Amino acid sequence: MSKDRANHEKQRWLGTLTPPHLRLTSAICQRTNNNGIGRRYKTNVLTLNRPRALNALSTSLFGELNDALRQMDDDKSTGAIVLTGGEKVFAAGADIKEMKDLTFSEAFNNNFIASWSATIPGVRTPLIAAVNGHALGGGCELALMADIIYCSAAASFGQPEIKLGIIPGAGGSQRLTKAIGKTRAMEIILTGKNFSGTEAGQWGLAARVFDTNDSCIQEAIATAEKIAKMSSVAVKAAKEVVNKSQDLPLRDGLEYERKVFHGLFGSRDQKIGTQCDDQTIPFSDATNEDPRDGCIYTEDQAGMV
């Protein structure tokens, strides 16, 4: 299969429902070098699937999402993950039915919504949020947990919890402030106002902004495939050091980065990478099996939810 044909085939994503709250699409692709040595890598697209509830986030949905992400993260062939929602709603926020009757004692003793942000920060596989439509409250917080955010210009972000007599509880006050600055975050959180996808790009919250929903999803998939082709050990190391920049003072961060940088000289991928041009790198899980470029599209259901 030619490279042009392979690139065309990569766009033919097959979808399958994984009841009740997630839809999963996977693609296993192969890339070969001039010697016919190939490397297989997999990208996954997870779609929130509660359309009647506008993808409202609940503890059960997050349990399924966390289980799916843990399984993907444990799969060494998974190179990157895209998380998305519907065309009109990424996630409209927390399921109010789940929390409207909660008492302080119940919320505190059960550590309500702690599980929502317990898994994603520990996922080592790069996670891209592709946001179309509304990402409000918990939906905005979920997008903020991703490593990269892509969105359409018409997307809408916000933390409207103040209108319910509460505050963001899954990281919104912390991650949003780090992403767009204190004064903008303060205005958004104190007033409950929304901001557009265009503003998200201008303020540095979104890495890229697209004119259409389809282009947002397709470019997120393309970026996931690009990342998946790289050395998995280098990708995980790069994600780790960038995340450390959010926690460490500059001097400590620079020292940490340098130690991880030095450590990669002990990897096989570093030796392969410095001896190949960037069009033919098979990296360390190289195999002689099925020596051709192309993708195998799968409907991966087993054990996901």
Please write the string of helix (H) and strand (E) elements: HEEEHEEHHEEHEEHHEHEHHHHE
How big a fraction of the residues is strand? 15-25%
Largest sheet: 8 strands, mixed
Low-pLDDT residue spans: 1-19, 286-305
Count of separate DSSP helical elements: 12
Total strands:
12
Mean pLDDT: 83
The general outline is globular
> What percentage of residues falls in helices of 4 or more residues?
25-40%
Structural class: alpha/beta
| Backbone CA Rg | 20 Å
Gap between N and C termini: 34 Å
Textual characterization of the structure:
The protein has 305 residues and is of the alpha/beta class. Helix content is 38%, strand content 20%. It is built from 12 helices and 12 strands. Strands 1, 2, 3, 4, 6, 8, 11 and 12 form an 8-stranded mixed beta sheet that branches. A hairpin with a 3-residue loop joins strand 1 (16-18) and strand 2. Helix 6 packs across helix 7 (182-191). The two termini are 34 Å apart.
Short descriptors:
single chain, 305 residues, alpha/beta, eight-stranded mixed sheet, globular
Summarize the structure.
The protein is of the alpha/beta class and 305 residues long. It is built from twelve helices and twelve strands.
Helices and strands, with pairings:
Blueprint: H1 3-9, E1 16-18, E2 22-32, E3 38-48, H2 59-74, E4 78-84, E5 89-91, H3 96-99, H4 104-109, E6 127-131, E7 134-136, H5 138-145, E8 148-152, E9 156-158, H6 172-180, H7 182-191, E10 194-196, H8 197-202, E11 208-210, H9 213-228, H10 232-244, H11 250-263, H12 268-273, E12 294-298
Parallel strand pairs: 3-4, 4-6, 5-7, 6-8, 7-9, 8-11
Antiparallel strand pairs: 1-2, 2-3, 2-12, 9-10
